[in-house]
Amino acid sequence: MPHSVTKAVIPAAGLGTRFLPATKALPKEMLPVVDKPAIQYVVEEAVHAGLHDVLFVTGRNKNALENHFDRATELEAILMQKGDADKLTKVNESTAMADIHYVRQGDPKGLGHAVLRSKAHVGDEAFAVLLGDDIIDGRDPLLERMLEVHGARETTVVGLMEVDPSQAHLYGIATVEPTDEADVVRVTGLVEKPAAGTAPSNLAIVGRYVLRPEIYPVLERTEPGKGGEIQLTDALLALAGDDAAGGVHGVVFRGRRYDTGDRLDYIKANVQLAADREDLGPGLKEWLREFVQTLD
After folding, report:
1. Disulfide engineering: 177 pairs with which of 112, 186, 199, 227, CB 3.0-4.6 Å?
2. pLDDT (tens digit, 9 = 90+) per residue, 259-286?
3. Residue closest to 16 by CA, chosen among 228, 271, 262, 209
4. What is the DSSP string of 218-238?
5. How many CA atoms lie within 13 A of 275 on its CB side?
């Protein structure tokens, strides 16, 4: 079903402290996953879903991110002189894939505040939010399905995934009711990082949202919550009980997702994605088999 959403908002103002010292001078979003910055996978996902207007909400020291999506005329000229068409194509992909804009968050007041900073650009229309720490495998589209649900139900939509109950305290967790679609639920409650053993379900929010513009006035009156930050989860909870604003629904995702926000999961993401590559997979898999045999 067609949808009217055209804009994607990508918060990218975090300091990436879990990856220090690598992120002392390099934005965490620019850490490579195989041979592309993690953030490029996220932009590609938005573009593949038909969202060609991308707004980054950035902070200080994010110049490398902006440069990556800008022209590199000297590099392009050198590659053209060498006749290296393949590398030139790769360089130009990040420049031409979307109409990219930037706004600064300023003070680090949380995800809800970062989303609120997009209001002037987005205006009075629905939009998608994609968090950079989550890479969704292109073979298992999630955002497209969320846009379909938004278009059909005129609702705010969050991506959900099942997690081990022991890990629920690391996520925003939803309370849900079933609908007439197997992968769609109605969200009736949300709690940000519940204390261990208190989670209302094992359905955690993935870093994907399709938000109606009603989220903005709710965020404007949302008080700081968990961690002293303005939580998007708190604003979504308010919308969940507002039928006039379409409520909140969730799409339960059971595909492949890679977490680049945790050091161990970041390493796993590199290995998994490289193993699936035709140019790298065969050699990597052979080496992995040999390497595993050397482990205790």
Report:
1. 186
2. 998 999 999 999 999 999 999 999 999 9
3. 262
4. HHHTPPP-GGGS--HHHHHHH
5. 11
